[in-house]
Amino acid sequence: MKIAVIGASGNAGQAIFKEATRRGHEVTGIVRHAEKAKSILGAEAHIVEHDALTLTKEDLVKYDVVIDAFNAPIKQAYLHIDLAAHLIHALRETTQPRVIFITGAASLTHPDGGLLYDHLIKLPGHEAWIATPENQYAELEFLRHVTNVNWLAVSPSQTFDAGDVTAYVRGEDTLLFDDQGQSVLSSGNLALLILDEIEAPQAHQQRITARNQ
After folding, report:
1. CA distances in angstroms from 167 to 25, 149, 192, 211, listed in the order given
2. How far is residue 46 CA from its own chain's centroid?
3. Which of 92, 94, 148, 180 has the most CB within a 10 Å radius?
């Protein structure tokens, strides 16, 4: 498949780019700084330097799948919503490409009640970083009103760190915890989840999640 990864030099993006490449897909990284991306992904990586907010329908329909792994600065966390709206607007009334958005964990239902977001805003010092989960939560709410684009949202666990491919446990709308009470997903396992879903689709216009096994 032809797969484009927006934000391919970021934590999630590079893991997805590498896993898709390893599986033999034709992968393009769409980034703001090509030189930086090649230093991370390798000189042979196919990189396009392009502002994601100016991508057109013609740019996007070249691919079978477009993955939005864009990581906005906290002070510009609203760009998560802006980019989602831009991609959806460009692709209205289409079925290809399939567009996959990484929407954060805040919107997942917490086993202790409410959403994870409700627990996050009670943490000391949350004002310094809450804009990102808040805007990614709003991004998912926006996507849930979209019925004429082939989209999927993916939420990691409460803790999302750079890490290897091992194995994962898949879910949908509930925050997942292991037997030690940890809710953790590595970037490698996020990539594994996304590529498994691309190659054998199970979800359409909904959100999925996972934790490390």
Report:
1. 21, 30, 8, 9
2. 20
3. 94
